DNA sequence: TAGGGTTTT
């Protein structure tokens, strides 16, 4: 989520949840700072909590291969520790210190900040590397990168031999790539004992990382092992014993990984709870917001709700309620914040309010970690979040409103204490806490892991079931991924990568179904078009839905509509963008298209076309013969096939599951030209919705995917 | 018939 262009800092936001001062973090490539600024930098660095522990940290890293930093926000760990390491000589002899971040924006802006403190030009001694954007040289000594980017580098250099230290920052977020990285780093350690690993994690989760590096045998899920016995009021479900647990006893080498606690700089946040649960969360939010507004004179309010619909209703009710305020009372200016907004609407959140006006930001989970807004004094927390989960049996995703974990609640409350003492109003009774999980289940246990499995295979890790996962995906999840990759032709009967298909699929940064389609697309005579379709299906929110004018948006979208379905409609929109709007965000705005998303699709398409060239796959256009594209899509999306029912609903071909067309599909308002369709994915919210739907012929399914349905039959 | 939490290669 980029709210600002790289090279600038968003107004009122901060980079690292650490100390950032606006003047010095501001735009452009930093020049070499003068002597006076250098002194100021060194004083500011010296005041950070981590400065006191500099020598202790360096000593521990000499002695221990793995150091876990348990650190609340505001310690300066992301900016300072890499500098300590640099000063202590860990980047001598051409070696480099890598620091991973789960998000692009963080990798870029922290690198900027550190380059400035070090007094170098960004991209030289200190640099960054994220997809489509890198500013570094082979001589770079401190490199900030996304965790996905470092994982990709392992595919090229399996021992990460150019790095002396790898610091995994924000590890508690447990992104899938962070988890993969941890497993592989532990493996690399055995071959490269001199490699140093630093894991930085928020408070609750830190012990889990120590345990992970100190255990000698892989073990299955320990989702909640971060609690000390005395704190364990929320008993976790018993960890499942995996088959290898029974064979071998754990023998922890206790000095492998050590933990260091760092003091934060956060201000205290007082927490308040409701006495009774509420049945109308939006109304309770509005009441609480106005209660704060009338009782407390200053300070902005951050509200956490679950989704766009709730946020819009909340804003509407705040506007209604505002009319009832006593005359002369200060006003409220409320802003929505979620990922579907246009860039302009997102930036509005950072602007200071007019005098005598209080800012209220009504946000999804995006404000929990991805976006930091300064000046928040009050947090109003619904205690709920929408979490995605993947069902390996049906192959479908669900997006379900769930109570937050305790870690999540703590993180949200902390948003009120960044600049002064704050207060957090949790809109549920305190008694509900004991039913909550300590931490959110890692992403890797809730997602389709086919691509990750493919990439691990490509690293030469043959036995995926015995990989040392920090938290193992369920065996159903693993088995399904293996079975599906076999059906796609990426794995052979022994589970080895096929050549060249499987090897190439592991390299491509797109969904395995789509990568199979792309790699075969020349034989269908439409690789040019499939490149675009693949790029378009890997970006979200191409059609803008915000600003309340949904009818206009709908009318604009219909201008691109193609009868054959959503994939070809996306192709159409992309081609129009290239023709008219590539350099004009105005053209996009007029047609309710997301300029940023389409520009990203362009970058992805360019990247994918480079892969095709390297694989010697010719880029051929099918012209106006769109049936070729639909046939080609069928060859990879065969698992996702459905057939229309007389009542307008669909049944999946594979299991006969009831499916609905998502309202964003062109087939929501018109009937497809044939009764069979393929779709990109199913998301279950209020119903099971098919997204990105394209009409196909039944014969194609038999011709191009007969093997899959036969395979499924014989297994039963 | 009426809807999408967030992130990444």
UniProtKB/TrEMBL annotation:
Gene Ontology molecular function terms on file: ATP binding; hydrolase activity; RNA binding; RNA helicase activity
Protein EC: 3.6.4.13
Limits of the Helicase ATP-binding domain: 58-222
Region annotation (Disordered) ranges: 1-30, 217-251
A Pfam family: OB_NTP_bind
Gene3D superfamilies: 1.20.120.1080, P-loop containing nucleotide triphosphate hydrolases
Record-annotated membrane-spanning stretches: none
Catalytic activity: ATP + H2O = ADP + phosphate + H(+)
Helicase C-terminal domain sequence ranges: 284-460
Cellular component terms per the entry's GO annotation: catalytic step 2 spliceosome
Alphabetized UniProt keyword annotations: ATP-binding, Helicase, Hydrolase, Nucleotide-binding
Enzyme superclass (EC): hydrolase
Protein family membership: Belongs to the DEAD box helicase family. DEAH subfamily.
Protein name: RNA helicase
């Amino acid at each position: 989520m980029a709210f600002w262009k790289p090279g600038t800092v968003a107004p009122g936001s901060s980079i690292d949840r650490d100390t950032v001062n606006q003047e010095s973090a501001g735009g452009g490539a930093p020049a070499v700072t003068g002597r006076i600024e250098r002194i100021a930098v060194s004083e500011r660095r010296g005041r950070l909590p981590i400065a006191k522990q500099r020598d202790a940290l360096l000593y521990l890293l000499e002695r221990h291969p793995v150091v876990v930093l348990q650190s609340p926000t505001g310690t300066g760990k992301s900016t300072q520790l890499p500098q300590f390491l640099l000063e202590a000589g860990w980047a001598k002899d051409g070696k480099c210190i890598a620091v991973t971040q789960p998000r692009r924006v963080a990798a870029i802006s922290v690198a900027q900040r550190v380059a400035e403190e070090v007094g170098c030009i960004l991209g030289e001694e200190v640099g960054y590397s994220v997809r489509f954007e890198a500013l570094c040289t082979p001589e770079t000594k401190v490199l900030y990168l996304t965790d996905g980017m470092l994982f990709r580098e392992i595919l090229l250099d399996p021992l990460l031999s150019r790095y002396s230290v790898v610091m995994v920052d924000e590890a508690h977020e447990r992104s899938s790539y962070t988890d993969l990285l941890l497993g592989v780093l532990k493996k690399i350690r055995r071959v490269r004992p001199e490699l140093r690993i630093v894991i930085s994690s928020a408070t609750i989760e830190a012990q889990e990382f120590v345990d992970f590096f100190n255990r000698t045998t892989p073990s299955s899920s320990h989702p909640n092992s971060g609690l000390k016995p005395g704190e364990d009021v929320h008993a976790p479900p018993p960890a499942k014993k995996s088959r290898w647990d029974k064979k071998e006893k754990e023998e922890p080498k206790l000095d492998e990984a050590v933990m260091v606690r760092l003091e934060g700089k956060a201000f205290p946040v007082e927490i308040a709870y409701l006495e009774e649960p509420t049945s109308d969360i939006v109304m309770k939010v509005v009441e609480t917001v106005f209660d704060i507004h009338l009782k407390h004179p200053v300070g902005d309010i951050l509200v956490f709700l679950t989704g766009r619909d709730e946020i819009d209703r909340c804003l509407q009710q705040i506007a209604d309620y505002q009319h009832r305020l006593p005359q002369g009372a200060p006003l409220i200016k409320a802003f929505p914040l979620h990922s579907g907004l246009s860039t302009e609407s997102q930036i509005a959140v950072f602007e200071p309010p007019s005098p005598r006006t209080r800012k209220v930001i009504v946000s999804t989970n995006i404000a929990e970690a991805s976006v930091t807004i300064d000046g928040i004094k009050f947090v109003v927390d619904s205690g709920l979040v929408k979490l995605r989960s993947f069902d390996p049996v049906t192959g479908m995703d669900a997006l379900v409103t769930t109570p937050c974990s305790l870690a999540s609640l703590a993180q949200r409350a902390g948003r009120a204490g960044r600049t002064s003492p704050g207060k957090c109003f949790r809109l549920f009774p305190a008694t509900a806490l004991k039913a909550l999980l300590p931490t959110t289940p890692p992403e890797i246990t809730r997602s389709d892991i086919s691509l990750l499995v493919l990439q691990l295979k490509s690293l030469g890790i043959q036995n995926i079931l015995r990989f040392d996962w920090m938290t193992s995906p369920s065996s159903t999840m693993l088995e399904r991924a293996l079975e599906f990759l076999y059906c796609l032709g990426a794995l052979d009967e022994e589970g080895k990568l096929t050549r060249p298909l499987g090897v190439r699929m592991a390299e491509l940064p797109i969904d395995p179904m789509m990568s199979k389609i792309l790699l075969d697309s020349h034989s269908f005579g439409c690789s040019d078009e499939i490149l675009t379709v693949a790029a378009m299906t890997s970006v979200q929110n191409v059609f803008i839905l915000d600003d309340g004018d949904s009818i206009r948006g709908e009318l604009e979208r219909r201008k691109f509509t193609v009868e054959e379905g959503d994939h070809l409609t996306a192709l159409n929109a992309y081609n129009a963008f290239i023709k008219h709007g590539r350099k004009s965000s105005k053209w996009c705005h007029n047609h309710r298209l997301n300029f940023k998303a389409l520009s990203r699709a362009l970058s992805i398409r360019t990247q994918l076309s480079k892969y095709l060239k390297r694989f010697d796959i010719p880029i051929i256009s099918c012209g106006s013969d769109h049936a070729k594209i639909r046939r080609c899509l069928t060859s990879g999306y065969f698992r996702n096939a459905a057939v229309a029912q007389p009542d307008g609903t669909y049944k999946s071909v594979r299991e006969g599951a009831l499916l609905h067309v998502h309202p964003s599909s062109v087939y929501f308002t018109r009937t497809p030209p044939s009764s069979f369709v393929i779709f990109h994915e199913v998301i279950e919210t209020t119903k099971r919705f098919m997204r990105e739907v394209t009409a196909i012929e039944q014969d194609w399914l038999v011709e191009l995917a007969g093997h899959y349905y036969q395979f499924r039959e014989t297994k039963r």
